[in-house]
Amino acid sequence: MVEVHLWSGLRALTGGLEVVEVEATDTGEMLRALTRAHPQLQAPIDAGVSVTINGRVIASGLTEPIPGGAEVYLMQRIRGG
């Protein structure tokens, strides 16, 4: 199981949950599992989110492995400029 920490704006879409547990081994599976568990997360995820694993922002797409016990955060998309 992966514990995914959500930014405050998403908590209203999960019944107030700050952390959601899902079965996943990589970032793509994690995002799909989140939307299966909480379909209302689909629109914000489709709009673009950033994922951090153990403090590292993942920019490599949907295949980044999530190691057991990892600290995972789903955040608003981080954009440079």
Keywords:
Ubiquitin-like (UB roll), 5-stranded mixed β-sheet, alpha+beta, 81 residues
Number of DSSP strand runs:
5
Which CATH class applies here? Answer: Alpha Beta
Summarize the main sheet.
Answer: 5 strands, mixed
Q: Which class of secondary structure composition applies to the elements?
A: alpha+beta
What would the CATH topology be?
Ubiquitin-like (UB roll)
CATH homologous superfamily caption = Beta-grasp domain
Strand fraction equals 25-35%
Mean pLDDT: 93
The residue fraction in helices comes out at 25-40%
Radius of gyration: 12 Å
Number of helices: 3
Q: What is the straight-line distance between the termini?
A: 35 Å
Topology order in helix (H) and strand (E) letters: EHEHHEEE
Biggest β-sheet: strands ordered side by side in the sheet: 2-1-5-3-4
The domain tally reads 1
Q: How does CATH name the architecture?
A: Roll
